[in-house]
Amino acid sequence: MREESAAAEGVPSAGLLPYGATGFLRRGAGPLPEVPAAEFRAALHHAARVARGRITAMNERSYPLTYHHALISDRQGDHTVLGHCHLRWIAFVDDVAEIHREEFVTPPDWAVAFTHAGFAVLGRETLRLGLDQAGWDALTPFERREARFHETRTLGGAVFNRWD
Known about the structure:
The chain has one domain (37-159). A hairpin with a 4-residue loop joins strand 3 (77-84) and strand 4 (89-93). It is globular and about 45 Å long. The protein has a five-stranded mixed sheet with strand order 1-2-3-4-5. The chain is of the alpha+beta class. The protein has helices spanning 37-51, 112-116, 124-127, 131-134, 141-149, 155-159; strands at residues 54-59, 67-74, 77-84, 89-93, 120-121.
């Protein structure tokens, strides 16, 4: 799949992270947005059909994770999919782990199926952007402390996190 452009709707652009990206509340901003797990699951089923594969695992988000994760298997192998639980963002990683810092991979061609369900598929280059380029200034002082504490240096690590 072609890497997405930062100008695409719902995709983080340099210096701008939307509310809910890190999973932390901000004073006066109201409740965090929620992406129902059922919508992520429906998008997964659609993507698996497009890939001519099948979902071999699906785990809904549990606190403090900011994402659901799933495994789609097709003829090319297994693909680990992360679905942000506050924003309609999808990412692909090398493995199923609870901490994702830099192991983001280029989405397979069939990942475009997630866009049909209203999700933005974030590419490897976007997710590996340094936080200083991708939105350090948009983080609250508390979120910055969390990023430092967890040694998070990338956009992907900040938004697909397990900070507590």
